[in-house]
C-alpha cells in the first residue's frame, strides 16, 4: 500500500472527482425534454457525460478502498446524484475526524479534494457554455457560468493556506508552484462580464477553461510524482 500521505491525497481527489459527472447529470436532465435541433444537442451532451460514468464509479471504488485501509466507516456506495453528494459529505467528515486541522495530514486530503472541486467547476463552465449557445444565450445559463467562475476564484483563494503549510514540508515546492500558476492563469477570467458574452465569447471562454484545466492537471500530476518519489 502507498504511504499515508499519498493515500490521503488520492482519497481527497477520488472522492470528489465524480462531482462533475453528477452535477452535469442533474443539469442536463433538466433540459432533455427539449425538441428538435436543441434537444439533439442536449442529448449529445448527455451522452458525452454518460461516458464519464465508468471513471466516476472507479474513483468512488478507489476512495472506498482507501477508507477501508484507514479503517474508516463509510458505509454504502452511491448511485444517483443525491446519494453521491450525501455520501461525499459523510466521506469527508470521516476523514476530517480522523485527520483534523491540527495535523499536517489533513491538508493532503484537503488540497487534492479542492483541486477536484475546481476541475468540476471548470467542467461545468464548459458544459454551460455549450448549453447557452443551444438555448440562445439564456440569461439563467449565463448566470450559472458566472457563479462557477466565482467558485473557482474562491477555491484558489482558499488554497493559499493549505499551499503554505504543504510547501513548508521538505521538497514540497510543487504545491507552491501549482498554486502560483493557478493564481496567475485565472487573472484573465476575473474581470469577465459573462452576461455580455456572445457565442464567440463563450467559445473563447471554453477554450481558455480547457487550457486552465490542462495546466492544473499537469501541476497536480507533478505533485503526485513528487510525493511518490519522497515516499511520505
Task: Write up what this structure looks like.
78% of the residues lie in helices and 0% in strands. The chain has helices at 4-16, 19-29, 36-50, 53-69, 81-98, 105-134, 139-167, 173-185, 187-190, 199-230. Helix 2 (19-29) packs parallel to helix 6 (105-134), helix 7 (139-167) runs antiparallel to helix 8 (173-185) and helix 8 (173-185) packs antiparallel against helix 10. The chain starts with a helix and ends with a helix.
**DSSP strand (E) fraction?**
under 5%
Beta-strand segment tally: 0
Largest sheet: none
Q: End-to-end distance, in Å?
A: 12 Å
The succession of helices and strands, N to C, reads HHHHHHHHHH
Helical proportion, percent range:
over 70%
Oligomer: single chain
Structural class computed from helices and strand pairing: mainly alpha
| Shape call | globular
Per DSSP, the total helix count is: 10
- How large is the radius of gyration? 18 Å
Overall average pLDDT: 92
How many domains comprise the coordinates?
1
Please mark out the parts with pLDDT under 50 across 5 or more consecutive residues, or reply none.
none
